[in-house]
Amino acid sequence: MPQTFRSRNLRFLDASYCSNISLEAVRMPRLVDLRLHNCEGINATSMASLSECVFLEALQLDFCWLLTSVTLDLPRLRHISLVNCRKIVELNLSSPALVSINVTSCPILNRIAIISTALEKLVLQKQQSLTTIMLQCLCLSEVDLTGCESLNDSICEVFRDGGGCPMLNTLILDSCESLTNVNLNSISLCTLSLTGCLGLTNLQLACPRLQKVHLDGCDYLEKASFSPVGLYSLNLGICAHLTELEIRAPQMKALEMKGCGALSQANIDCPQLHSLDASFCSLLNNVFLASATAACPSIELLVLMSCTSIGPEGLLALQRLSNLTLLDMSYTYLTNLQPIIDSCSQLKVLKLQACKYLENTALIPLHKGRALPNLCELDLSYGTLSQSAIEELLAWCPHLTRLSLNGCVNMHNLDWRFGACNSYSDSESPKKQNKSDLRDDKINVKGNPNQLLQHLNCVGCANIKKVIIPASAQCVNLSSLNLSLSANIQEVNLACLNLATLKLSNCIALEILQLDCPHLTSLLLQACGIEEQELECTIQSCNLLETLDVRFCPKISSTSIAKLRLMSPDLKRIFSSF
Hints:
By secondary structure, the protein is an alpha/beta fold. Helices cover 10% and strands 24% of the residues. Strands 18-20-22-23-24-25-26-27-29-31-33-35-36-37 form a 14-stranded parallel sheet, with no helix packed on it. Strands 1-2-3-5-7 form a five-stranded parallel sheet, with no helix packed on it. The longest helix has 10 residues, at 286-295. The chain is elongated and about 105 Å long. The protein starts with 11 loop residues before the first strand and ends with a strand.
């Protein structure tokens, strides 16, 4: 093409792969669509000719490898594409009509300035050298700068109120590793993502409409302020270096601070907060709990697992939480339940996993529902309570519907023939009764008609050898029993009318399995030592059984599996190693 080319009526020109074209003296005033894909002659001086194309709406400059700078002021330009422009350093666009811009694989692009009243979305991913962005885009609502590693803290000025993007709704700054101090105040911002910003240490957000924020991978965040924000929930991930936190969120319902082990100061003002998880925040103390309960009186679910700096005095602050129904104090130094009893009268769920300092007498106030009458779920897993304390709990707390005793090393047998689940008068004690009168065939065991236990978990109780629940125990509501990983269980004898699921996986010592459970539908015996004949006899009494798992059972053969199928035609699923 000659360099003196002129055309007043040309509207479309595709000069792609014309390596020598430069357009330095070309005038095309009516041109609407120009495609210059892989034109090596196009450079910064070509922009003067393009600026004369006042009707230009679409411009493609992909693979123009000698292009170092683009500066255009085109009132009708709507679409521009710059892909693999390896030497471009600067891009300046002034076009009120601009609606889309594609900038990809421009490794040394350093500066971008855009003026547009129509652009709504700007995506500039993985522009590793980009340090400066200037925007005057009145309708811009979404910006994605993922992987722009060289962007520094000054980028926040662009997206603040008065920074040129008054309608900004979504800002994505994922993996912008040079960011250290993000300070944003915006009345329009609703979504902010800072995932993978490894250098971020300080975060200050004053965005009253902000509803979503993503901080995964911000491992070195030290100070964070969300005041005010419109968040409904916030997950701080595992910010192991976070030391100071401020939150003022009138609408927040759920806050998760799990794993913030260095957090020592937290000012939380969330009057609608429903759930607070401060697991493993070991430096948070009584002062924090007092201020949090005062500012967040609507908390219903509170997790203080491994919050070892909160003592009995601090727990008295829970009196302010009249709606508290779940409390998790696992892995703490609790010795008794009195502070909880005094403060949480409405409690329904109490988790005390691995509370190894809990005294054997700590559960006595729970007997017969005298304290915490609404309590229905109790987790005492991995504790050191004695066998007698557990037996008394089973006997005297019929109101519990779910009980977890996983990994309790002091549990030796679960034998309910001798007192457990039976009703006693206040003057009676199980220990005072004559053992000979407690056998089912000699006395009429009175059974507690209010026994509500539905789910019992005794996973990994290595010292249990026998599990016996006779019909006289009247555990008519028990529907699920999990004894998996209790490797020394030898005998299981159950008479539970409504038991539906029984899990005995990895009970390698199991020899005797007797079931009078007419509603049993699922029996899991994976890696058990039960004999073929014992299993066959057991299955005959389980007419509603639908699922049987006997994988890795060393004493169960393929012949036995075939027999089981014939004996139980209604059995829908048999999992075996054959």
